[in-house]
Amino acid sequence: MDKHRITIEDTCESYLQSGLQTVLAGMAALGRKHIPVGCHGGGCGVCKIQVTAGTYEKRVMSRAHISAEDEASDRVLACRIWPTSDLRLKVLGKMGKSLCCETAASGTANPSSKKL
Amino acid sequence: MALTGVLRPGHVQMRVLDLEESVKFYGDVLGLVETGRDAQNRVYFKTWDERDHNSFIIRQADKAGLDFYAFKVDSKASLDKFEADLRAYGVSTERIPAGEMLETGERVRFEIPSGHLIELYAEKKDVGNGLPYVNPEAWTALAEKGIAPIRMDHILLYGPDIEKSQKIFEDVLGFYLVEHVVLEDDTTDLAIWLSCATKAHDLAFVRHPEPGKVHHVAFQLESWERVLRAADIMTMNKVTIDMGPTRHGITRGTTIYAFDPSGNRFETYCGGYSSYPDWQPIKWTVDEVGRGIFYHDRKLNDAFLSVVT
């Protein structure tokens, strides 16, 4: 199968991968780290990217992280897209937090009533 | 009977992004037994060795994550009493009629301050584990299908105000603290492990700014060998492993964290010590949290505090 060149614009890093792997899996398999790696299942949202050029196939992603508008604007999760051409992208997601934020976070929530 | 009130974790309902993909994963790879589907298009599972009709339920939604987590109580009288006690404590409750979930009696649902829905129920149909109640064998063929855990064991929830949720479980429902991780102020807990019986934990919380999040649902395995076999099955099926196989310092369980096809983390877990309510809780200081969570790596991975659904 043809390989596609993935270019991360933030760092100008690039790598080759097949269309059989997601963009995130292709990056992680090479030991690279620029896109944050989370659940690989479209659920947690940390690998959010903006595709700036190229084409891809995609699968369902959590609406908690990717709105319909995001999806229409090529803001997607790297773990749920498979390249069908060379791709260029920018990283939007990040690992949320560190231990030092924890104390400040306490006592702030007022959860609204939940309905399933 | 010494074990009264809240008996054990009973069922958990999770949201998945693609139902049939998830049914295949939970049935063939994790090796749960499908026990039914309902009019809401929910799919019900149990582990091979569980006797009640269901313990793990999935439904398709546009967001992954937890719908609710439930505990079985010893009688309808206890259910009524816990409902009254919760209300007296200032917690709003809602009754969900028998039969709303397949083969499950009336449920009392309430929201805790960390933003999670918790349920109590007293009745769920005993469908058995495939072995007779008189002179059984030791296991069935289903005990070898996929990872094949023994039971749905516990859950780790992420949200704010975990001390307020802890108070409800301790003061109203009879849980007790087994272990905790204390932040630098030596007062605020980063994380707590609670038990309702003699397991090292039935429920755990990590303090987190967003309410209602889930870190993982855990399934118990019989041995460390079975944990290693689970890792092999995950690799054969391209399941994303988050951490392990390794051991936790906290609870001493052996473990793998991995992700289902929607990014919901699950744990295949073995061991952990037995605890008792008269025991003094074990305290971990935050500078040693890495060893507490991942005993061999001795540091947290990036995903532990950041990747939840």
TrEMBL record, chain A:
TM ranges: none
InterPro entries in the cross-refs: 2Fe-2S_ferredoxin-like_sf, 2Fe-2S_ferredoxin-type, 2Fe2S_fd_BS, Beta-grasp_dom_sf
MF annotations from Gene Ontology: 2 iron, 2 sulfur cluster binding
Pfam family, one: Fer2
Record domain 2Fe-2S ferredoxin-type: where: 4-95
Name of the protein this chain belongs to: Ferredoxin
Originating species: Pseudothauera lacus
Lineage: Bacteria, Pseudomonadati, Pseudomonadota, Betaproteobacteria, Rhodocyclales
TrEMBL record, chain B:
Protein name: Metapyrocatechase
Domain named VOC: residues: 8-123, 151-271
Subunit structure: Homotetramer.
Keywords of the record: Aromatic hydrocarbons catabolism, Dioxygenase, Iron, Metal-binding, Oxidoreductase, Repeat
The organism of origin for this protein: Pseudothauera lacus
Molecular function GO terms recorded: catechol 2,3-dioxygenase activity; ferrous iron binding
EC class: oxidoreductase
E.C. numbers: 1.13.11.2
InterPro entries found in the cross-reference section: Catechol_2-3_dOase, Fosfomycin_Res_Enzymes, Glyas_Bleomycin-R_OHBP_Dase, Glyas_Fos-R_dOase_dom, VOC_core, Xdiol_ring_cleave_dOase_1/2, XylE-like_N
Family as reported in the entry's similarity comment: Belongs to the extradiol ring-cleavage dioxygenase family.
Superkingdom to which the source organism belongs: Bacteria
Pfam family, one: Glyoxalase
Known catalytic reactions: catechol + O2 = (2Z,4E)-2-hydroxy-6-oxohexa-2,4-dienoate + H(+)
Cofactor(s) listed: Fe(2+)
